[in-house]
Structures are given as structure tokens and as C-alpha cells.
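Chapter review: from sequence to fold.
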Amino acid sequence: MKQILSLNIDIRSCRYRALIGTGGIGSGNFFALKGNGTLGREESRSGRFIDRRDYCKLHIVSHYVQTLLGPDFRTIPIGRVGDDRPGRELYAEMKEAGLDLSHVEKVPGEQTLFSFCFIYPDGSGGNLTTDDSASSGVTADVVDKAEGVFKEYAYRGIGLAVPEVPLEARFRLLELATRYSLFRVASFTAGEIREIGKSDVLRNIDLLALNLEELAQFAGIDVGRTEDEGVVRQGVEVMGECYPNIALTVTAGAGGSWSWDGKELSFFPACETGMKSTAGAGDAFLAGVIAGLIAGLDLPEAQQLGTLVGSLSVTSPHTIHRGINRNSLREFLLSRPTRFSSGVRALLDK
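The C-alpha cell string follows.
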């Protein structure tokens, strides 16, 4: 059977023709610990490495956007990897996926961003991430080198700023995206959104992608004492008072997702599926939303496409599910009882 990769659209007729983004590019390993007790400060604990590969945020989002939109769309990550084996492997994988790597530097003598993820038997866990990697050297000056592509895609591009590179680089990307009238998309960690607070930085964003904890941190809501929908409604109210022009997506894992387009709050349930790993699901969701917006869907419909991509992504143990494409998404949709819009179905039709 012929593999159908990209969505059923003609990119030449779409408003947006390129994605220009910055964020982390790196990899990681997963280690399964024995015992659910929290690892002590001086404790030695046995376990085993498991066949699960981790990727960083910019790579995940860029991969899915490029795969879903096809070779006529241009995805341009801005970042740095070390000229080491992990960096060369990541560079080769990104090139194979069709990404434009003209602004990804391979830096001799520096190490590629790496995360060591540990998992307890109950599924919880954490990770340790290098803070002196090539990605930590992505500065505003590195982003400035790509100003020509912002100018080239003025009014016709999307600017994306995601974690795992310094905030200054992401802020500069959003400034350039504003200068050249790109559609501006960003996400932040819970700690970052708390640090940024109600700053002017958020005025340079059209779509802010958060999870429930990150929205709660922004709005000062106690998640433990508030139901998910209550957190979202309160958060949207606070966000709307401060930044009335920002649209939002909010993910809550198996609890589904919400989108806010400035007028209407839309909820869509998560798809039940055989879950192997939830790592990277939020980034896959965001990629699906971006691809949907580029394809001409409104935000609630793009949220549905994001749900499909994010839900299918968790059926892979790796944070990039290389089997996700138009054909696999269509088969996944047809096997789900959830009702998707005609717009989403049309993108996946044969």
C-alpha cells in the first residue's frame, strides 16, 4: 500500500508557507529504576536502560510539522548541536525528515543537549538535563543571523519559540516575528511562565501553548483545589484581562484539551489508546495545531488535529513517532469513537 505522508492540501494556496523556530535540539536516554520510593540524595539504586529515545522540543515540533505539510512547506529550525556523535545523528535525522538546516550550527568542541530520564515502576519520574550544551549557546545573535528568512516570509510565516534554549533567544525570535508580521506561537515551562509573569514579552505572542500546570502558575491558581475546567476558565479570564489578543491551547493529558480563540472556550477529549509513553505528547499536540492552522482550520478544529497527533504519538515509546503521517492518522481517526469535524476528516481523506 502506498504510504500517504502529508495532509490533503495544496501548500501553495495556504497563507503560511514556512515555520521559523528556535528551541532545544538534543536527545536523551530512559532508565527504569527499581522500587517506587523516591531516590535519596546519597542512595545507590539499580535499574535498566529501556528502548525509548528522547528528543527535544524544537526537533519534535519541527519533525511533525514538516511531515504533515510535506516538501512544499519550509520548516527552518534555528539552533545549535555539538559536532559530536549525538549531534551528527540528530542532524542527519532532521535532514532526512526534510527540515531546512541552514540555521542549525554544528559546533566543534561542544556537546549536544542531553537528558537522562529516570522512571519509577508506577510511571512517574524526572530527568536531568545538561545546562552547558550547544543549545545553551543559542543567543539573540544566533537568531539574528536568520533575519533574512523572517523578511522573506513576512506576512506568510509562523514564528515558533519553545523551551530548552535561553529566553533571550526566544524573545528575539518573537521580536523578529513581530517586526515581519509572522504569526507568533510560543510555549514556556511552568517556572518560566511564573518568572515572565505579566510582562510585555507576552504581547509578542498570538498563540500561547500551555499545559494545565503552566496556566495555573501564570494565573496563581491552586491546581490541587480546583477542577481542571475551573483552572482553565479562571486562567483564561486572567489571561484575557492582561492580554486580550492572545489565543490559548491548554492540555491536560488524558483529561483532554481546551482552546481559547478570544471569544469561545472549546473542549475536546483525548483519544483512548494503548499508551507506551506520554513523553513528547504535548509537543506533538502543538505541532498538530500548527499544521491545522496552516491548512486553514480554525483554532478549535486545529485543536482536534492536535489531539489526533498527540494521541497517536503516545503509542510509540519514543518522543518522535516516525509512523505518524496522513495515512496513519486517518486510520487512527476511523478507529476512534470520538467525533471529529468534517474539516479535519477532509485533511486526512485519500
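Two observations follow directly from the output. DSSP finds twelve helices and 13 strands in the chain. The longest helix spans residues 228-242.
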